[in-house]
Amino acid sequence: MTDNARDRERLENLWRSLSLQDREWLRRRLLPRGEARADAGGPLLSESECRAAERWFEARCSRARTARDAQARLRLWCIFLLLRYGGLRLVEIFALRAEDWDWTQGCVHVRGRAGRGVPLPLPLVRRLRDRLAEPAFLAVLARPVCDDSLVRRSLAACGRACGLPSGLLSARSLRRNRERELLRLGLSPEQVDGFLGRNLRGAADGNLTPPAVLKALRERIQGDDISFRSSARNTFAGRVLQCAPCGLACRVELLTPGGILLTAIITETSRRQLDVREGCRLVAQVKAPQVHLAGDGCPPPPEATHFGGEVESLRSDARWREVLLRLADGSRVCILQDGVHQPFLCVGLEVRAWFGALSVILAPE
Question: Which residues form the Mop domain (predicted)?
Fold first, then answer.
């Protein structure tokens, strides 16, 4: 056993010996100033609890029996995502209109005294845009008003279904959760206040977030995600572990935050133009038709990138089948298949997928 492992074991034993009051005191003393402020209002949700709540709202949408019920459930799902990732107040969500959504920039423009632009994670914006673009759900953006008591009852029902303590899942706790996440991303308390609409004096246009604050928020929350402006559905950001030239081509290994080791083959000219080197950060794009499921009759090449995920949704027409996989880190991968003679799939099934090294497009982050 290494010294680090022994120290870790001693700390774990010490932590178990402490009372709940002592644990809370020690946790607050060790937290950075901003995170301690976010935790001051009581217990917060863990990342796994947030994911479980999100899956619950999505599952309710898929079980709707009528178009009216589907719209109502989709509206609640949309409200949950704005609470979860936007940190909006309920009154701000109820005041949103279709024109307040900026799909190009991936922002929601909040009106009123705390008017501001709220950047959302671009994978989330893509999901919302895809769902809300369906004809049956156009009214969700045009009429987002919802009864706040219905939202609170839905959050309480979700908490019970996920086995959470009573009252833990609420609009206020989701807002504080987002505050803590942004602080952990490296944003200052002042920048987080700008995101949450604190100490801002807005106007009717709802877009008075200071430019420097909005720029920092977009860099941390969205990054330079060029896939949002292209037809590629799948984007992986990561750090280069290895860059090995091999004649006219170059083999690049990229490690994503979710733990996927991605291999790409690019030309030596492209490597020089992008200044690809070990340690630099890149964005990898793969078009949906280039991603394959294991066992679909297409054998993977030697340098393929393999990963696993859970089937989140299935859509098909006379020719094509679209499969959306949720990976372990919460990100999603879209697969577009020729719908003829494809293996059976169902929502919730764990599957393996892959794409070839020559299918990857690299760009600077």
Answer: 229-295
